[in-house]
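Hi, can you check this record?
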Amino acid sequence: MNQTVLEGKKTVVSEIENKFKNSGSTVVAEYRGLSVAEVTELRRALRAEGVEMKVYKNTLASIAADNAGFGELKDSLTGPNAIAFGEDETAAARVMANFAKKHEALVLKAGIVEGKVVDTNTIKELSALPNREGMLSMLLSVLNAPVTSFARAVNAVAEARPADGAAAPAAEEAPKEEEAATEAAA
């Protein structure tokens, strides 16, 4: 084999291996039967979520999976596959699973999430989760709820008091006590 071709393949294997190791999530899917327009639509949807989709030779991807410590992924690397690499742990799974619901030709096979090879059921479960910003928003609303409740309680107490403050009830009680003392003396 030509030395330059061999070096080129080593470079590609190294690239795939790095993507397997450094991505928050990876999804392998068979795209047989998708039209060019559908693949373009999928790439556009993935790009919008910060996910990169690549098509590699299965033998090179298998070698890279072995080198990266994801040997179980090799069984999924048969047929025409596209591999989606996402920075977010849920983005690749969410976009690929949602696209697969609308386009039956896209078949999810396996993935890597948090350094573990996962099956299609796990990918579908991850697809139901919101993206990172959505999760942070949910967390902030949970953290903000006690503060909001406390503020409402303080506001309700403040509204329940009379307009001229706490001194008014004490001022009204003093004349009543004087009247009672005057009546008792008489």
In short: The chain has a mean pLDDT of 80. Strands lie at 25-30, 51-54, 81-86, 107-113, 116-118.
